[in-house]
Amino acid sequence: MSETRAKTASDYSLGNILSDLLSCISDEQQPVNGSNFLQALYFIYNNLSCSEEMPLPVYKFMLDDDATSDAIRHLKARLQSLVPNDITALISPITYLLDEFICNIQQHAQADDGYAFVDYNSASDSIEIAVADEGITIYGSYVAAQKHLEQLGDSDAQALNLAQNGYSVKNLPETENRGYGISSNMRMVVEGLKGEFAVFSGNALLIQFEGKKEVLSLPKEIDFKGTMVIVRFPAHVPAEFDFYKYIS
Are 228 and 131 within 8 A, CB to CB? Predict the structure, then answer.
């Protein structure tokens, strides 16, 4: 993807962005890992060539409690500095989502580090959040926990289907149906904040926005050894949004 063009607000759907993202990785023949995916994603959001060299605000953090707390504080502060309007009303859902995404990496990914970036897109007046790991994938988490193996088969796409429908990878009865937190987090983003939600794990992609939810099996040569969650939503809170509806 060596050429860029001016994008309109309609270009900034997650479907188009993820298509560009996969093309960018393929064109540049980069290793498929969390850092490179986030770098490519940042370039696409900012209408830059994937091959351009520039400082990249991808935040890498270790997966201990102090480091992840620092990561969440850093990412929130960066968003507040980037968005031109007051986002006080969004701080609770942003904090919650970052905490959920990062805790999922700690609990399930069997990885040493996490990667994240946040950005404000002026073309669509939207906030972008991406969190990635280079762990065992969602499919691998079900296998490691020996959970739902009959439904799982050997498919990354089926693992995403199970996760979005709340099938837990934990062994505690009270956490059953919570899964990766994907189902409740997706509802908050899509239904509550009127945004878009995507998960990329292994060679499968889940994408949801208002009126559409789809799980895709990607070509076998696209096999991300890890998991990346990407959300984008308007930089203002809908009048009817009730944060507590999505965390109870």
Answer: yes
Calpha distance 44→51 (Å, rounded): 11
Percent of the chain with pLDDT over 70: 71
CATH number of the structural domain spanning residue 63: 3.30.565.10
Q: Which domain holds residue 196?
A: 9-47+56-236
Domain count, the chain: 1
| Contact criterion met (CB below 8 Å) for 45 and 17 | yes
- 28-32, 37-41, 148-152, 225-229: which has the minimum mean pLDDT? 28-32
Where residue 98 falls among pLDDT bands split at 50, 70, 90? very high
- In the chain, the amino acid numbered 181 is G
Residue 153, C-beta contacts closer than 8 angstroms, at least 6 positions apart: none
Please check whether residue 144 is in contact with residue 110, taking contact to mean a CB–CB distance below 8 angstroms: yes
Give the CA dihedral 14, 125, 91, 160, nearest 10 degrees.
Answer: -10
Helices 91-104 & 65-82, crossing angle to 10 degrees? 140
Q: Is residue 80 assigned to a domain?
A: yes
Contact 2, 51 (CB under 8 A): yes
Closest CA to 17 of 36, 45, 37: 45
CA angle 195, 198, 202 (to 5 degrees): 175
Give, as one character, the DSSP assignment of residue 74: H
Domain assignment of residue 22, yes or no: yes
Please indicate, yes or no, if residue 247 is contained in any of the structural domains: no
